[in-house]
Amino acid sequence: IYIAPQIDYFWENQKSLFSSIKLKRVCILSAVFCMIFFWILSFKTIFIRNDKFLLSFDSYPVNALNWLKQYREGGDLLVDFNNGSFALWRLYPDFKISLDGRYEEVYEDHTLVSVNCAMNPSCPEHLNSLSLINPHFILVLTKTISSNKFDSNWSEIYRDDSFFILEKSSKKESQPLMPIRRLKDSDHIFSASF
Fold first, then answer.
1. For the whole model, what pTM was predicted?
2. Distance in angstroms (rounded) separating the CA atoms of residues 68 and 73
3. Average pLDDT across the chain, whole number
């Protein structure tokens, strides 16, 4: 409906070029052929997918979070920005997450800096940030940091090829395969979990 006036205007201004009926037919048939071709191509692309959609969870802490949910009753989990939303999705409401993808809307400006520093033992403010956030658990990407870089207040309770989990050490040795009592949520960083 909207294109008809433009086509009429085009035909009127190009009469000398399209004076022969044969040339008009060729142009119209070419235009129709192109429209049909692109319609079939888009139909095949949108509706007929021969390839299968595969979702790889290799970069997500699936096994680590499943283990944490199974063997711990809850607590505050320190995670980096990239894993926060996934952890929130898998662990809510039993675990509070330090940071997730809602950073710009939910968290104060200093939160990202504090979390990054708490996750990095080589940061000069690491211990201060860690004590300010005060998590019960830390989820760390295995490739980035070794668990022995964290101080003696943390025990490794889980490890796989991609992630490890640290737990705040208590006076007695941590028992990685036994559930512990539910820990209370007390820190402001974890208050914006949902």
1. 0.61
2. 8
3. 77
